[in-house]
Structure formats: C-alpha cells, structure tokens
Design goal:
Layout (H helix, E strand, L loop, with lengths): L4 E2 L2 H4 L2 E2 L21 E2 L1 H15 L3 E7 L4 H10 L20 E8 L28 H16 L3 E2 L6 E3 L12 H4 L15
Keywords: Cell wall biogenesis/degradation, Dipeptidase, Hydrolase, Metal-binding, Metalloprotease, Protease, Zinc
Cofactor: Zn(2+)
GO molecular function, one term: zinc ion binding
Amino acid sequence: MSQLTEITADGFGVTLDIVYATPANFTGKPVYGRAACYLHPDAARCLATAVDLAARQGLRLHVFDGFRPSEAQWVLWNHTPDPRFISDPRRGSPHSMGAAIDLTLADAKTGQCLDMGTGFDDLTPASYHGATSISVEAQRNRFVLLGLMTAAGWDFYRNEWWHYQLFSPRDRYPVLSDAAAGTHMMPPGATPPGAA
C-alpha cells in the first residue's frame, strides 16, 4: 500500500476545491466519488513550503486537484485525448503518482481567488504560462504563483498556469490506482475502457 499524505484544509492551511468531485469540470460530470486531496510525502513537503511563502505575501493556496488515481486519468483522457493538456495515461500522469498539484492563489483575508486570466482547466492557449492575451494583472498574478511554487521546489508545466509537479516524477514515482493508493476516491466500478 502506498503511503500518500492527505492534504486537509486545517492541516496544511489551504483551501480545498476539488473540482473533479463535482460536475464543474470539463467532462461535465463528477470523476471522483468523494472530494479528497493526497500527495506523495515529497510533494506534501514542497506544498508546506509554498503555503508558508504565500502566507508571507498575504496569500493562500486554493487547491483544485492533487493525487489523481489512474482510473480517473483514463476518464479525462477518454473524454479529451489532447496531450497538450491531458497526460496520456499509458505514459503516466504525475498526478497519478501523487507528484503534481493544480492550484491558484487567493487573498488570505477575503478568500477571493486572484485573476489568472482564465479559469482552471481552460484548455486553450490562453492558459499557457507567458500568454500575453490576458490582462497585465493576470500575467502578474501568474508570475507570483510561478515564483512561489518554484521557490518551494516545484517544476511547472508550460501549457497550464495552475499545474505544478515535482522534478522528473516519471523517473522517481510509480503510477497508482485508487486501490493501490488506498484513497477510496473513485466511485464503485469506475474502470473505464482502456484502463489497464
């Protein structure tokens, strides 16, 4: 059994908004059976550092997703097999290793998320790091998030301003199913066609 660390709002000082446990994601349906966030212990340590750095700027991390069971990665890929935004599950997503996190920044006092120019999972070039089609304020907010996360030990993915992962995850961590991780995130019988 894998030993992933559960990321809780109180334990880590973050806001959890696990989008794939709701219909408010690009598939239009809940992917997870319950809202939960887990990370590999290495990633959890980097997250704690990022939380501290953000707090010093009056900011709070607002988390959309962490560990994504391999079954869930198949659901996303089968819906939208676009490798610019969705990792081919045969290659292995860093999310399915507990080595990636999707998040944004919020004002620590009000809880209001900062303007990042697009929403989470906006699968268009406007979501690329360095996109100049968005407002200057949104570009600045993305750079603040990029600076906090990279200073805390995270790598970034150039096509998604919200996605951060540990360096070289495919060389270091295994892909985990819901059962192997022991997270109980997937609804019963959730093994879509093509899942190994």
